[in-house]
């Protein structure tokens, strides 16, 4: 099956394909990313709403540069990086329109009040707050005042900072909040995922939880699903080989399909702690071992290990009764393969 899975049929988390800067400056490529996300089975597509001027300053000094040792963006100025990575605002409507046409939820991450105003004009259904903006409580309150559901990534944050962000969202009027565990490192390694934070956040703040996953592959996201993730966000590209600011830690279409299927399977596999034997095990139950006549016997023969054995399938006395059977006398004859019953024994 291709295409998005409806929320009614979905047991796993909402899988969000994050486009970020993987459009590589081309609207056509951005639209192709949306199509590929839908075809891979994603449930939502997300972009980011900023310009270089709204997110930083055009200043070339050490404070405004990515550190030299950064694996992907070392020594680049923030202004230059964000100028390359941003999604032009005039692209938002065609991206959202196509996503909705294909059955995807389409939303964005705003980075300032002007972005929120713009996204409200486009009637986005929910908002995402990026990890670094978790300390921008005025922005969180502005987004919360829209009344839309909010997703907040907690990468870089202390528990106190998460609590302040949650308070700002609730004070602003947000009634539907999801916190995403996140390691704000690109790419991140599984050792730093600390997924056990998720149930702790759910209990501590009384909110839904999920994962913004910057690790390579899908294993960490599948594990997060088993810990109760309701949202999984992964960066998505058409091809890592084609490059781009986020390509190195983004999934390709085949991998995104595997992510959707893997997370759905993980959610279904959780099942119920009260369910033991299942209807699917009917045939296996029939084939469990029991006691059978293992050699032809005549009336008066004594039951022994030579003529009675515990073998598959079921149908005879339970194996636990073997010690009670040995030494008893056969009342009637029986051929090899007869299920043993007390009626055969004296």
TrEMBL record:
Name of one Pfam family that matches: SAF
Transferase as UniProt keyword: yes
Organism domain of life: Bacteria
Enzyme Commission designation: 2.5.1.97
Keywords on record: Transferase
Biological processes annotated in GO: carbohydrate biosynthetic process
EC class of the enzyme, as a word: transferase
Domain named AFP-like: residues: 290-346
Recorded GO MF terms: N-acylneuraminate-9-phosphate synthase activity
Record has Transferase as a keyword: yes
SUPFAM superfamilies: AFP III-like domain, Aldolase
NCBIfam families hit by this protein: PseI
Protein's name according to its UniProt entry: Pseudaminic acid synthase
UniProt source species: Microbacterium ulmi
